[in-house]
Design brief:
single chain; 133 residues; alpha/beta; Oxidized Rhodanese, domain 1; 6 strands; globular
């Protein structure tokens, strides 16, 4: 009888675990995990030690506003690859742009260059700015 109870609890736990849906959607590119994180998750990520927030928008966009503490490397600049290559590949990054398209491309490019801990902020700075106004 005990075995049946333990089996039932184990099965129920497994069903609950599988049915739980995460807000993080991960895909893999060359062994790197590219997570699309929601704005609500940004604060949790920011509180982790050693995470770098990478803004890949143009200088004009950055001048209009940015997430505090970010590092700026414009994806449309001619030396984007060279600037990215100088970054630590073992560091975890949150990458953002205006709405998520350019940052997604930047994450894929970074993964191809050997970065393994990449998070794309869904909705980008537009979502961040709306939540802070």
């Amino acid at each position: 009888m005990k075995l049946l109870s333990y089996t039932s609890i184990l099965c129920l736990s497994l069903v609950m675990l599988v049915s739980c849906k995460s807000n993080t959607q991960a895909t893999s590119v060359d062994g790197a995990y590219l997570n699309n994180i929601e704005l609500a998750q940004l604060k949790d990520f920011q509180e982790k030690e050693g995470i770098v927030i990478l803004d890949v928008r143009t200088q004009g966009e950055v001048d209009a506003g940015s997430i505090p503490g970010m590092v700026h490397i414009d994806i449309s600049s001619n030396d984007f690859d060279e600037q990215i290559a100088k970054l630590d590949k073992d560091t975890e990054y949150i990458v953002y742009c205006k709405s998520g398209g350019r940052s997604s491309r930047a994450c894929k490019k970074m993964a191809e260059m050997g970065f393994t801990k990449l998070n794309n902020l869904k909705g980008g700075y537009t979502a961040y700015n709306k939540s802070n106004n």
